[in-house]
Amino acid sequence: MQLIMLGAGSSAGTPVIGCDCTTCRSTDARNHRTRCSSAIELPDGKIILIDTGPDLRQQALRERLSRVDAVLYTHTHADHLHGIDDLRAFCQLQRQQIPLYGSPDTVRHIINKFPYVLREPGDFWDLPVLGVHVVEQPFNLFGMQIVPIPVKHGNSDILGYRIGNLAYITDVSSIPDNSMTLLQGLDVLLLDCLRFKPHPTHVNLEQSLAYAGHIKARQTYLIHMTHEIEYMAVSQRLPDSVRLGYDGLRIKL
User: What pTM was computed for the model?
Assistant: First the structure.
């Protein structure tokens, strides 16, 4: 099993439109960040996506993804959801419905905003063919136990996910104590890290490192970063167990 980091960027991506900072002008490919998403490739070749950001088509072409078998949604902000139409290509290739999983609020939002994608398989594949499933407790998917991790994103309640000894926590401002207990014994943690200064709905670098120190995963990768985070400069400041994620990174699990 492996995780493919499709995107490690925040909602604006990096480079940022109109910006001339060092990170945005960098020639280091690890500073070029599409919107935050990852794919988990199972031993049998099935692919589970975490979120469908607006760069999904570009990410899939770059990583040569030719199938998607399910999507786990963390929440419904545009940079995590609005690539949902790009699932159409995978439905056409596979000739099968793709199941979507999310919190009750996430499922309601998809039903209300994207009703045309919720269809049963038929003779026509000109639109996405997707089905929604509410996540309120751990469930089994393709032989893997998926454990939802409730976290706070400002005033919003959203989900992270634990799959085996991997956990994915993006867009988080705080992790409740009950959820911290679900994050023990991890081999790999992907964790939000927006910027240097505090932010009302995201942890900053200092807070991310504090959470990483409490959770004590064997390896933590920081994700959802703005252009304030320059890859080489920040990497040199991190403890050995923490690294910056980047687009295209593959992590064996």
Answer: 0.97
